[in-house]
Design brief:
heterodimer, A: 116 residues, mainly beta, seven-stranded mixed β-sheet, four-stranded antiparallel β-sheet, 11 strands, 0% helix, B: 114 residues, six-stranded mixed β-sheet, globular
């Protein structure tokens, strides 16, 4: 596709429910990032993939959060037993590194998760 | 750790006014610096960037200069338009990682009125 696609755009979950958020990166982009953006705040790093390898998951707030990218393309962020504090917009970004060593990250529109 | 601080909003300006949004950072090494913009209902977009000291990034009339001595990357525009109304995020890419992990500031909301 032309850009990073995320689905669903909106998700309402009852507290305790499991959710799965999908990210389709730009074709050919090796790097993929997940961020969490609380209302009125800047995005906060959650995790990073290089192809299918999850190289950094230091930002995942708890062991209820799990991300995967099994074939190095589509990624899924899963949140188990959702809590109200998980309510946020979840952003996915993909990037490439040019031969000159320059990179640019392209962001999706995000999934707004509301836990009630 | 690395962090970004930017002026609190919201900022309200009249059309054709001069815009400055202050941004300072704390980082180890030599990070790359960015301004991202989020228009209403849209995703984050890269506005401009600078990769080393004294570099000036520019796009759509916006400019920012990487000032290592003051650890700043202030965003400026000489004459804002209503269409510039958005949330602006200052950000840095950590130098110590090889994969451009981006740290964002809290964002500054700008409203431009006719």
């Amino acid at each position: 596709g032309a850009g990073v696609s995320q689905s669903p755009r909106y998700k309402v979950a009852k507290r305790g429910q499991d959710v799965a958020l999908r990210c389709d990166p730009i074709s050919g982009h090796v790097s993929l990032f997940w961020y969490q953006q609380a209302l009125g705040q800047g995005p906060e790093f959650l995790t990073y993939f290089q192809n299918e390898a999850q190289l950094d998951k230091s930002g995942l707030p708890s062991d209820r959060f799990f991300a995967e990218r099994p074939e190095g393309s589509v990624s899924t962020l899963k949140i188990q037993r959702t809590q109200q504090e998980d309510s946020a917009v979840y952003l996915c970004a993909s990037s490439y590194r040019s031969s000159a060593g320059l990179t640019e990250a392209f962001f999706g529109q995000g999934t707004r998760l509301t836990v009630v | 750790g690395n962090s970004v601080t930017q002026m609190e909003g919201p900022v309200t300006l009249s059309e054709e006014a001069f815009l400055t949004i202050n941004c300072t950072y704390t980082a180890t090494g030599y990070p790359s610096l960015f301004w991202y913009v989020q228009y209403p209902g849209e995703g984050l977009q890269l506005l401009l960037k600078a990769t080393k000291a004294d570099d000036k990034g520019s796009n759509k009339g916006f400019e920012a200069t990487y000032r290592k001595e003051t650890t700043s990357f202030h965003l400026e525009k000489g004459s804002v338009q209503v269409s510039d109304s958005a949330v602006y995020f200052c950000a840095l890419s950590e130098a110590e990682t090889s994969y451009d992990k981006v740290i964002f500031g809290p964002g500054t909301s700008l409203s431009v009125i006719p």
